[in-house]
Amino acid sequence: MNSKYDRLFKSSTKEGNFWPAFTDILATILLVILLILITLMFTKQQELEGKEKDIQEQEEIIDSLVGYERGMIEQLSKAFQEEGVKVEIDQESGSIKFDSDLLFDYDQTALKPEFKQQLKQIIPIYSSVLLNEENRAAIDSILIEGHTDSDGTYMYNLELSQARAFSIVSYILSDEFGDFPNKDILREKISAIGRSESMPILVDGKEDMDQSRRVELKFRLAMNEQMQDVLDDLNIQND
């Protein structure tokens, strides 16, 4: 009898020891899972905070660029107004547009006399503002861009737009044009670019042939590496 009861007692004791051990293991597993979840949540939070910080820094850089560009545009507008020279400046891009039909004869690259006179009024003021000692370091380049309408082949229009832009730059830097403030600095920064028909002016979704034939005078700001990275990221996102 004793041995029978001993066996029952021992068996009951073993089962009693098993359940506490199992619950300990289960609690440990749950604790590990909880720690993993907490770690993942903490890591995710750090990633979100890092992204928010990057976005904030990008916004500050963009605001700085836009603010500086608008400041340049305001200086130009004020200078032209003070000199009594009527020039329409795009308040968003800072570009000055010239109607190609007023600059050149049809299919020609030689500047008309009246446009030469207009350039003699505009360029000295433009150069005195953007390339003075205070601003010149912030200006990366001055661009003369030639544009055509879509009439004709792309390559023909590319050659025509490039030749017209080059004619303007050549005249501005020539002895015929004469001296003006910061001409030597402008010589280092100015470029002639032909855009062919790649950037037409659209009105109600259709190309305006007359407005598309144009020349634009514009400037680009110099950017440090951080600013360039932000703009590159934005261009990638837009693509």
From TrEMBL:
<keyword id="KW-0812">Transmembrane</keyword>
<protein>
    <submittedName>
        <fullName>OmpA family protein</fullName>
    </submittedName>
</protein>
<dbReference type="Pfam" id="PF00691">
    <property type="entry name" value="OmpA"/>
</dbReference>
<feature type="transmembrane region" description="Helical">
    <location>
        <begin position="20"/>
        <end position="43"/>
    </location>
</feature>
<dbReference type="InterPro" id="IPR006665">
    <property type="entry name" value="OmpA-like"/>
</dbReference>
<feature type="domain" description="OmpA-like">
    <location>
        <begin position="91"/>
        <end position="223"/>
    </location>
</feature>
<keyword id="KW-1133">Transmembrane helix</keyword>
<dbReference type="GO" id="GO:0016020">
    <property type="term" value="C:membrane"/>
</dbReference>
<dbReference type="InterPro" id="IPR036737">
    <property type="entry name" value="OmpA-like_sf"/>
</dbReference>
<keyword id="KW-0472">Membrane</keyword>
<dbReference type="InterPro" id="IPR050330">
    <property type="entry name" value="Bact_OuterMem_StrucFunc"/>
</dbReference>
